[in-house]
Amino acid sequence: MADTLSPEDLRKEFEKQIADLKKEVGALSKTLAQRGTDTLERTRESASDALDRARGQARSSLAQVREQAQLVSDTVKENPGTTATVLSSAGVIGFVLGLIVGTQLAGNSRRW
User: Fold this and answer.
1) CB–CB of 5/13 below 8 Å?
2) Regarding predicted confidence, which is higher, 47 or 109?
3) pTM of the full predicted structure?
4) DSSP string, 81-101
């Protein structure tokens, strides 16, 4: 009967196991917290880098748009007759296309 444990010995063994489990849970909690912190930091850095790249691209695009707008403005100032001809031609073409599409749509609605 030397193999059987007394209730007091069982209680002490369970308390020891519970204490060991608490230590393991604490260690796991610390590890998870550290990993979460590391992941958050990496994510912040990646987002910051992406934002910096986007800002740089936006600035570059804005500079190009300004440059192109200035070129168009200069061209219009230098060639007002050509500009008027191009714009009025585009207007006439748009009007004619609108008439054609309108006629086609009106013709299709009669068939239904």
Assistant:
1) yes
2) 47
3) 0.47
4) HHHHHHHHHHHHHHHHHHHHH
